[in-house]
Write a structure and sequence with these properties.
heterodimer, A: 344 residues, alpha/beta, Rossmann fold, CBS domain Like, six-stranded mixed sheet, 14 helices, 38% helix, globular, B: 669 residues, mainly alpha
């Protein structure tokens, strides 16, 4: 991640609700839970700081009431944070005029909503064209772009349908097409698949990964579903009671949970889906079998069939083809069985 | 209070002194004491004339100052109001010419019309087409038949005069309502200011509007139309605020994220999303306009209202009834059309092209029909105006029918009337008039305290005192007595019908149609049959009020019982309750708050109708407003009108507080 440039940055973002919230941080520069409670305030977001790299999928995971939606609304400036800084390409969102904010939203940001938030009086075509229409994009360009987006999300042929005539999954496809119509750089997704059936949800997650492989947006994805987070994330931020408890790759969270709360979430996850070869391999001893593409960053799940069917120690290679490790069936079987943490 | 009673045995001493039983016993004892020894404090019995605040005089003086002395420098206040009338008279005259008079292109009032008005056939045809375009052939034929009635029974010109006023007042009312609603939605300050004004405007009786309008804008169709507009706007404001606030948050957030400017957000996201709510407001404006334009015949609106009014004055029952039916049919036409329009199903993709083609066809058809019939009307007089020889009248029939009823059933009707008068109405009236004002004020104050706390108590006392100190107490008590008895009777009729309708689908369907129709009729219409059968006086007024106000009692009871979750009824059945036990022990207690809301509505409607029954000779605040109207005495009219509004507000706040408490007890929010 370090080689990619920083696209989005939150520094010490606070959002407090209640009377006197505005002056609270002036009176308590580094408040404790007790301070907040004593003043009768509710903390939506407490001191959140992180950076998101260009093209990264950054998932914010938390249960309901954890403040994840509030954080997203601060990041998109739908609500004004109590204090802190929010930078997109080095521009502080809290520091610009209404007009500049509108311009920024028209060109750099897109957002998808949990309950779709389609405009019921417009057709699919009208909904997808809406963001272009309000910024007076020329008719030809608008039509071209709109049809391109509808095709991209697989709704060709439904252009004249109204939202109430579409299934939930189709409605969210419209929501996605609409938010991509202005070709935004930062893409906010607020629990976009939570209102969908489990099968459709999985299909839509694949769809998202497909779109991302084409478009390479900087994505902020909110979810309460840890499985979904693992499937999609480059990095995950886990929130609880307004605080970001831990930020890391799925593997880091599983291997080194910051506290009991994070451990609770990770304990049910099939570890082979998350752990990489590097986390279980041993030093090479020279007699490994070559021939399979096994890399340190490969997920154990993806190399397991090869290693177990050959029933031999295999060589782990780096990008230049140099042997950097040794992977035996004995390394991966405990992981597959989900008992590796008990053995170690 | 019943819950307090149940707890008495195990209550401690201090608790007992705060219990309902104790407080109310003390209150009753004090009240009796005050009444018995009334000679000691005559002022508590009858509010001294010398203490009356001459608010009426002040208001009248202020109004004449406005009209006679206020000068903005460039123009005077009077010039301002007159120029408003002048501006509004243009569109009204145009529509009136189009539908009734024809265009004369001459300032000479006696000039023959050069261009004839729209032929009656074209108007009927336009209504049929509108019905078909909005819904289907069924609606088209229904409204066509209703409009045709107007021609056949010789009510065409009156009806078109009424319709012209509605055509102008409705768009203006909708525009003003939406505009104020948007302002209130955007600025919290405006909303805080506007809500109490709306409360007052919606409870002040209709006649009270007419008095200052008459004073400011004179007598005639334009003044009547202004009154209509002002009367019909408040519900639109309320509905506009409500439907804008109900637009889902995420849709507004989407609009912001898409980069809408505040203006784009309002017009492209919020207002289209609030469409279905706003359409309900449009229906309300139309129906209220019709109601008011009929009543505004008293300040010169003309039209069907004038027909009814003059028949009532002449006691010409037959023609009054015919005009009443004409109003009813016009009301049904406008209501069905606007309801069908607001309830149109959401558009579907398949219809997209056909829908557009169909609409175009309809427009061509309408235009062709208008042009053809209009040109033909130059040559064929029967097309221009409905020939008199084709007209029918049932006036004689109705007159004979009423005569027959009065000849054959006079004794029964009279006995019924006398029994109720002697045993219920007169004793209640005496009791209320004999109760010292101070006791009544203390009663509403205490009730307010028990139901809603200190604030409600103070509000109730302040509003009641207003009536006392402005000198309207006696008339207010007559209002309360007539309203109270009417509401009681309406509840005794309405609640059982509501229960029956909730438990039987077939009854439900019939009741729905009746209640819908009752609620669309302008209040004026109710006077006609009542006067026919019971002539004038308190009793006739009471019957009219009961018929007018019974609808919400039925509707809310039905709804209250129907909305009870089915599993509660199933559980009771499983426990072995009989149908009667389920009703008495499960359904009625749970539905009670809803039923009380219905009674609240009944009270509001009863009060507004009561004022109109002043025309059949009551002696209450309504009569006061009516007299003020005939004498153009603004102060008197406004004070009496506001007093009626305050009675309505006191009862509304008390009942709402009770319902809130009861709902909290049932664990509903």
């Amino acid at each position: 991640m370090t080689e990619r440039s920083v696209k989005f940055k939150c520094s010490n973002v606070w959002k407090l609700f209640g009377a006197g919230a505005d002056t609270f941080l002036g009176r308590y520069p580094s408040p404790t839970e007790q301070d907040i409670q004593r003043e009768g305030l509710i903390a939506g977001v407490q001191n959140a700081s992180f950076e998101i790299a260009e093209g990264e999928i950054f998932v914010v995971m938390g249960l309901s009431g954890s403040g994840k939606s509030t954080l997203l609304r601060c990041m998109s400036r739908l609500i004004m944070p109590t204090s802190g800084a929010i930078n997109i390409d080095g521009v502080d969102l809290l520091d610009i005029s209404e007009r500049q904010l509108i311009e920024l939203r028209r060109h750099k940001m897109g957002m998808v909503f949990q309950h779709f938030a389609l405009l019921p009086h417009l057709t699919v075509l009208g909904n997808v064209a809406f963001p272009l229409e309000i910024q007076n994009t020329g008719t030809d360009e608008r039509t071209r772009r709109t049809l391109e987006m509808i095709e991209l999300v697989g709704l060709k042929g439904r252009e004249n349908y109204y939202p109430h005539e579409l299934s939930g999954g189709q409605q969210q496809r419209v929501g996605i097409a609409r938010s991509l119509a202005v070709n935004p750089e930062v893409w906010f997704l607020d629990e976009p698949f939570s209102a969908l059936d489990p099968l459709i949800r999985r299909e839509m997650q694949n769809e998202l990964l497909r779109l991302q492989s084409l478009l390479r947006k900087t994505i902020v994805f909110i979810t309460h579903d840890f499985d979904e987070a693992i499937r999609l994330a480059d990095r995950i931020a886990i929130m609880k009671a307004g605080k970001v408890i831990q930020i890391g790759t799925p593997e880091e969270l599983v291997l080194a949970p910051a506290d009991e709360y994070v451990r609770e979430f990770t304990s049910e996850i099939p570890r082979a889906k998350v752990l990489s070869v590097a986390s279980v391999m041993s030093e090479p001893s020279g007699d490994e079998l070559h021939g399979a593409d096994i890399f340190p960053h490969s997920r154990i799940e993806s190399v397991a069939p090869e290693v177990i069917s050959r029933d031999r120690a295999m060589a782990v290679l780096d990008d230049s083809g140099k042997v950097v490790g040794r992977l035996e069936p004995g390394h991966i079987i405990p992981v597959l069985a989900g008992i590796d943490n008990q053995i170690v | 209070m019943s819950e307090a009673v149940a707890d008495v045995p195990q209550m401690s001493r201090t608790c007992f002194f705060r219990s309902g039983i104790f407080i109310w016993s003390v209150f009753v004892a004090l009240a009796i004491l005050i009444t018995v020894y009334q000679d000691l404090w005559p002022w508590a019995m009858k509010y001294p004339r010398g203490w009356v605040i001459p608010l009426k005089g002040w208001i009248s003086d202020f109004m004449s100052w406005l009209i006679n002395d206020l000068d903005f420098g460039v123009f005077t206040f009077k010039e301002m109001t007159r120029s408003v009338s002048w501006v509004l008279s243009w569109p009204l005259t145009f529509v009136n010419n189009l539908l009734v008079e024809g265009f004369a292109f001459s300032t000479d009032p006696g000039a023959e019309a050069v261009l004839p008005p729209l032929p009656w056939i074209a108007v009927v045809g336009l209504f049929v087409l509108a019905g078909i375009a909005i819904k289907d052939w069924g609606l088209g034929l229904l409204v066509g038949a209703c409009i045709l009635y107007l021609a056949i029974f010789g009510r065409w010109e009156s009806a078109m005069v009424t319709l012209s006023a509605i055509f102008i007042a409705v768009p203006l009312g909708i525009g003003a309502g939406l505009g104020i609603g948007i302002l209130a939605f955007k600025f919290a300050g405006v909303k805080r200011l506007i809500i109490p004004v709306l409360d007052l405007m919606q409870t002040v009786p209709v006649f009270a509007y007419l008095v200052p309008i008459l004073f400011l804008f004179g007598f005639g169709p334009v003044a009547a139309m202004i009154a209509t507009m002002i009367y019909a706007t408040p519900p639109m404001v309320r509905i506009a605020i409500l439907s804008l606030e109900q637009v889902p948050d995420d849709r507004v957030e989407y609009g912001e994220m898409a980069g809408c400017t505040p203006k784009q957000l309002l017009w492209k996201v919020q207002i289209p999303s609030a469409r279905s709510g706003l359409m309900i407001g449009v229906n309300q404006v139309i129906m209220l306009s019709l109601n008011m334009v009929i009543i505004a015949s008293m300040i010169g609106a003309g039209g069907l209202g004038f027909d009814v009014l003059s028949s009532l004055k002449r006691l010409a029952i037959g023609s009054g009834l015919e005009a009443g039916i004409a109003i009813t049919l016009l009301a049904i036409t406008l209501d069905r059309l606007s309801q069908a329009y607001s309830k149109r199903p959401p558009p579907a993709h398949l219809e997209h092209d056909t829908y557009r083609a169909r609409r175009q066809k309809m427009i061509y058809l309408a235009a062709t029909m208008v042009v053809v019939t209009w040109v033909a009307s130059f040559f064929i007089p029967a097309i221009r105006t409905y020939p008199e020889s084709w007209q029918l009248t049932t006036a004689g029939f109705w007159g004979d029918l009423v005569k027959w009823i009065n000849v054959n059933y006079f004794d029964q009707l009279e006995a019924f009337k006398t029994v109720l008068l002697v045993n219920v109405l007169i004793p209640t009236k005496r009791f209320l008039l004999a109760t010292p004002w101070i006791v009544v004020v203390a009663f509403v104050g205490l009730l307010g305290y028990r139901l809603g706390g200190v604030r409600l108590s103070l509000l109730a006392i302040a509003l009641a005192l207003f009536i006392v100190v402005t000198g309207g107490w006696k008339k207010a008590m007559i209002t309360v007595y007539l309203c109270g008895i009417s509401v009681l009777i309406a509840a005794l009729i309405g609640i059982p019908i509501g229960i029956w309708s909730a438990r039987n689908e077939r009854v439900h369907r019939v009741v729905q149609v009746c209640v819908d129709t009752l609620q669309t009729l302008p209040s004026f219409v109710y006077l006609i049959p009542v006067v026919m059968l019971f002539r004038v006086g308190d009793f006739a007024a009471m019957i009219a009020v009961v018929v007018y106000a019974v609808a919400p009692a039925i509707r809310y009871t039905d709804h209250g019982i129907r909305q009870i979750p089915i599993h509660l009824v199933e559980a009771s059945t499983a426990l072995g309750c009989t149908r009667w036990q389920i009703l008495k022990r499960v359904q009625l207690p749970i539905a009670l708050p809803e039923i009380m809301l219905g009674i609240n509505q009944t009270i509001m409607m009863a009060l507004s109708m009561l004022v109109i029954t002043a025309l059949v000779g009551t002696r209450d605040l309504g009569q006061e407003v009516y007299i003020a109207l005939t004498k153009a005495d603004t102060g008197r009219g406004i004070v009496a009108g506001v007093s009626v509004a305050f009675i309505a507000i006191i009862s509304d706040r008390l009942i709402t507080a009770w319902v809130k408490r009861k709902r909290a007890m049932l664990g509903e929010s």
